[in-house]
Amino acid sequence: MLFELIEGTKTLSVIGMCKNAGKTTVLNSLIAECESRGETLGLTSIGRDGERSDLVTNTKKPEIFVRSGAVIATAESLLSECDISMEILAATGIPTPMGDIIIVRARSSGYVQIGGASITTYQQVVRDELYKYGCARVFIDGAISRKSLGNPALADGVILSSGASYDPSISKTVLDTAYIARLFSLEECALTPGPARFTAIRGDESFSCGEPDELVPFLKAGADALVIRGAVTDGTANQLTAIGKLLKNTVLAAEDASRLLLKPAGFEKLMRFSGGFRVLKGTRLTAVTVNPFSAYGLHYDKNEFKERVEAALAQAGVGVPVMDVKDA
Q1: CA 145, CA 88: separation in Å to the nearest integer?
Q2: Are 206 and 268 a contacting pair, CB within 8 Å?
Q3: Would you say 77 and 56 are in contact if contact means Cβ atoms under 8 Å apart?
Q4: How far is CA 197 from its chain centroid?
Q5: Which residue from 38, 78, 95, 161 could staple onto 23, CB 3.0 to 4.6 Å apart?
Q6: CA distance 282 to 185
């Protein structure tokens, strides 16, 4: 099932809403399906994954299993934690707290631990190196705290994993999951930003500036769109809502979903004060996966959790499948 969803996707980020959201289970399912079809896979991570027990919660975790031929980019200190025979292909010189990233090819099947760079530009270099060694597809393991993984310059597809470990309240987990899925599903728009942080566009005219209050004279005559470069935060939302009705019919556009660092309330505030949100470069959200089991013992009913996430996504206008991989 997962394989059909990622057809046409070369680089896929598996992003967890929290630790123990079930993304390692998703990753293992993807690896097994792709390798059974003869694909050579590349694997890396923005942190650390594949360890036998969670270093924070001290709970058992699923390990990452690969077959011979897979190419892994991982931190040097984790090589001894892998139980595969391996061929060292390259030392990238890219630093992590666990040592420089080394690229190896599995020469036997077994379990691996992957640890990688947290900086997007480093991740792009690692991704490109993996392709040099014959990978048909690259999987990047990550977490929502590193939403840069949703940057379309890094990955052309995203799977979002949510689980009961996120919060004891199923309502909060469902709402926050739907919100992140909504950001990753924003429509693209073809606009050209100016050199400054804000560019207001009206027909063939545009005005670019560094502060929202400088937009006021241009916006008084109306604007079709306002492009915002860089991070869009709650502070940005407060600045823009201060100019109020001038943005009523103006479409707001961020560079991509990874730049949207707003809390849900800030996002909704901007939606009310404007003509809606778009992105210059869209992210392809392929699925949302759900894990009803919590590392902290406060589990959800699996059917209720899946059904409520499905309903919340539908209400948010997000048309992607919701899956419990263990039940698929």
Answers
A1: 31
A2: no
A3: no
A4: 24
A5: 161
A6: 7
Angle between helices 302-316 and 170-183 (to 10 degrees): 40
Cβ neighbour number for residue 42 with a 10 Å cutoff: 26
d(CA 139, CA 200): 37
Residue-wise pLDDT tens digits, 132-185: 999 999 999 876 655 555 678 788 899 999 999 999 999 999 999 999 999 999
- Tell me phi and psi for residue 266, to 5 degrees: -65, -40
For the record, the structure tokens of 199 come out as 């560019």
C-alpha R_g of the chain: 21
Please give the structure tokens belonging to residue 178.
């739907």
Question: Which of 3.30.420, 1.20.1050, 3.40.50, 3.30.230 would CATH assign to domain 2-185+283-327?
Answer: 3.40.50
Cα 224 to chain centroid, rounded: 29
Q: Which helix (H) or strand (E) holds 49?
A: strand 48-49
**Helices 264-273 and 170-183 sit at what angle, rounded to 10 degrees?**
50
Q: How far apart are CA 159 and CA 144, in angstroms?
A: 11
Two structure tokens written together for 217: 């004279």
Extract the tokens encoding 219: 């916006």
* Whole-angstrom distance, CA of residue 180 vs CA of residue 316: 10
DSSP state of 301: P
Contact assessment for residue 116 and residue 44, using Cβ atoms and an 8 Å cutoff: yes
Q: Delimit the domains of the chain by residue range.
A: 2-185+283-327, 198-279
Residue with tokens 């899956």: 323
**What torsion, rounded to 10 degrees, do the Cα atoms 310, 23, 4, 39 define?**
180
pLDDT-derived band at 118, boundaries 50, 70, 90 = confident
Query: Which structure tokens are listed for 118?
Result: 């947290």
- pLDDT at 109 > cutoff 90: yes
